[in-house]
Amino acid sequence: MAEFDIVIKNGMVIDGTRAPRFRGDIGIKNGRIAKIGRIRPHEAARVVDASGSIVAPGFIDLHTHYDAQIFWDPYLTISGFHGITSVVIGNCGFGFAPVRPKEAERAMLTMVRTEAIPLRSMQAAMPFDWESYPQFLDKLDTIPKGINLLPYVPMNPLLGYVMGIDESKTGRMPTDDEHAKMRHILNEAMDAGACGWSAQRLKPDGPSSVQRDYDGAPMNTDIMHDETCFEMAKVLGDRGEGFQELTLASWDPKADAAHFEKLAEISGRPIMFEAVAANDRFPHRHRNTLRWLERCRERGLPVYGQGVTTDAGLTFTFEDWNLFDDSDAWREATTGSIAERTEKLGDPRRRAALKAQMPRESLIVNYFDEIIITQVDRPENKRLEGMTLRLAMLETKKDAVDTMLDLAVSENLKTEFFAPGTNSHDSAGMKELIDYPYLTFGVSDGGAHTKFLTAGRFPTEGIVNFTREQKWISLEDIHWRLSGLPAFCAGFKDRGFLREGAPADIVIYNLDKLAVLPVEIVHDLPGDEWRRIQRAEGYQYVIVNGAVTWENDQFTGVHPGKVLRHGVSA
pLDDT confidence of 15, banded at 50, 70, 90? Predict the structure, then answer.
């Protein structure tokens, strides 16, 4: 009998710890790395030739919303196309447990606008045969998985379960008894294997509240009280374990920073700050955040940041678009059926308010007049295709809002636009994010905004642009930022590196051939829904828990992924 199930021969090993690279072999047995060194081929049941290739830890995607997609896509694409072997679910306070069966429809509606997950897909694929969070984890155990899942407890369903959905959105303070129930549920979930809690707090009275409930109202976490966060932090402090993930923007940076620091002090546990994005027009923003993160590091406060290291941008039509929700007028005009949206966006009586409340520059869109008209539906509009709104304004003799909306309404909202990201690969601000060594890479938002966004490409994009092309960061450092550092920050206890005894989550790729492929539209979601994707090329093999899940540019059909309860394999 062979000593090893698989031996990876002659690869250039980057182990995820920032140690110098070396050429060597890796022997895998029973799902784990059994030996790193020189191994003879006859000792292996299967030999994988990695000559001329990089062998590195599988990538860890900290910011995803695959809580629904795992029910129909075991490889969690598009993350699965780009070397991701583990993801965190339950981010931003959004998810599906705890939930009473009679409230399943409302739970799905919660994800329709804020994360743009199609309702028909969820209705077609999600059984909702659980209620408690431990039952939800048990359900995930039974689902085929080609990728590992590390679960956080989301505050949105927790608040709704204890207070009632409608009551949790009134903004009242939970009673002492309700806080006690929340603490009990979080403890119960963590006893079962949850790794912490999460929340989105985009204050509705601030200009960043861009992610709303299905009806345009704020999410309940947006208006939850600081005291509720502190109660959750106390649970982690009492247990001496767990992690926290928070998306926060009150547009008072000092207050936001103080809130993160207090949560870290109360809990004594790590907390992920979401997210740090560069914008060369406002460089003080990311620079101030990086300086604050560095002060936290120097003080020993476990506050960690995730960078937006992709310039994926957003492709959209007004049939589905919902990411101007930071403006009351635009939010009202982009809710309702297609017919209702068409009527409202074409209503001249609304135009003054729409122009007065222009969507603000944010993580979502840079400047309004930089939006590009990428595809038109009617021949007479072909002359505008490929233009920015700034150029199209000269052609139409109208301002940006009238140019955009008159075009979209004339085509029954089928006109396609592209909103460039606030950062670009070669910007000075992006380089500052890459140069800060303690910032993790991202943000994929995998499973969310699938008709608009393809940011799950970020690992491939990062290696190609920042290491191979621009040489801003070494292979040793970028693989630590893609694997070892996120594992440390988010509670993965035995992953993120290549080490004897560790689970065998491994990517093997040809650095010269690695590439992000063009955007595609695919109709592969339940409920006859569609999405945008970007694949990769250059990944020869992906191995999850010792099993090959990707080979010859396709998935192999095996499902070795696990729910990482308490951050580890069962």
Answer: very high
